[in-house]
Amino acid sequence: MDKEYLLKRWLDNDLSEEEVNAFKALEDADLYEEIIHEAKRFNGDIHAKVSTIDVLENRLQSKKEPSLNWMKIVSRFAAVFVLAFALFMLLDKDDISTFTTDYAQNKTITLPDNSIVKLNESSQVVYNTSNWKKERVIELKGEAFFDVEKGMRFDVNTEFGKVSVLGTEFNVLTRDQVFKVSCYEGLVQVTYNNKKIKLPAGSEFILKSGKVQKTTTVVVEPYWLKNMSVFKNALVEDVFFELEKQYQIKITKSLDDNKIMFTGAFEHDNLKNAIESITQPLNLTYTIENNKEVLIKNVQE
Fold this sequence. Notes:
13-stranded mixed beta sheet, 18 strands, alpha+beta, flat, single chain
């Protein structure tokens, strides 16, 4: 039976009766048991008494085999220490929670303090549940809406910057080189390039292509929570790209000008309605094949 497989199952305390016998038959089984025993002594709450150098040297000499020299003994102890430390790290690892979403998938997550995270498509949040009472910190990739319970500071870390609050409702988008923070209730602080920017309710921070912009918003929550994608003066090719992601379809365009701009919205639960809401204002036509392929053309074609 594979040794690496047995070790992993043993560390997870998940050995079957047959696997227990196979593990005990390993040449180093006793050594692994001793390593685990010693690794637990690394716990910071236990103060182990360290023997003197003379005592340790006498013990080594008493166990020394004639065929082993001092360097072999040192090497063996070094290897045991490294393995013990590695096993200790596995046994003492933090309780990390990770949530991800795929295309066209949303997910609602309740945090240990009853704060709510609504995760948009193609996104991920990671946090440490075992340390939550001491530090409310979320690692975010993609987009999420936060409804934070009042309490100590709540931080959202992204690749572009950090968002900090005490208790409020806000949305964070970090995708495709865009960093956008929208505050819907309370006060949000955005830390970017060692600068701190305060966002009261009804305001937004946008970082795009290296340029920072602070604007206002009149909506009370992000449109994606209402299963809508909204655009303002956006390239139509970007709109169609978002449509492809939402409905898992392939769009082929035959247009005179791919630089057409679009202002409007489409819904996430009806493909026909979504396409018409884009094509009709732009005087375009379309055909749908097998609910998976869409051809977009100018009306005159």
